[in-house]
Amino acid sequence: xxxxxxxxxxxxxxxxxxxxxxxxxxxxxxxxxxxxxxxxxxxxxxxxxxxxxxxxxxxxxxxxxxxxxxxxxxxxxxxxxxxxxxxxxxxxxxxxxxxxxxxxxxxxxxxxxxxxxxxxxxx
Length: 123
Prior knowledge:
Elements: E1 4-7, H1 12-23, E2 28-32, H2 43-46, E3 50-53, H3 63-66, E4 71-74, H4 86-107, E5 110-113
Parallel strand pairs: 1-2, 1-4, 2-3, 4-5
């Protein structure tokens, strides 16, 4: 069985996706900005997860090293809602989603986008 790549894996939603994958017996790869953002105490909850450093905004930097995946679950996003964060929100929530769809297409993997409540994600 091909593993599932989870973006936003160091966040609340991503962690729970990893837990659900573990419970279903599906191998997982966690994409995190850096190993330093990965809470080591989660190991008991998420199980044996391969950690890959990177960002959804630049999949060309890590996609080839990941290997074949069955699906990409995109759970990364900016969840602060202030007018000063509009640029970050657009980059991560919109462009990051677009990049993950392209990465899934390139990998011939299923793309799953977890909507984060930002009304411009799909525009």
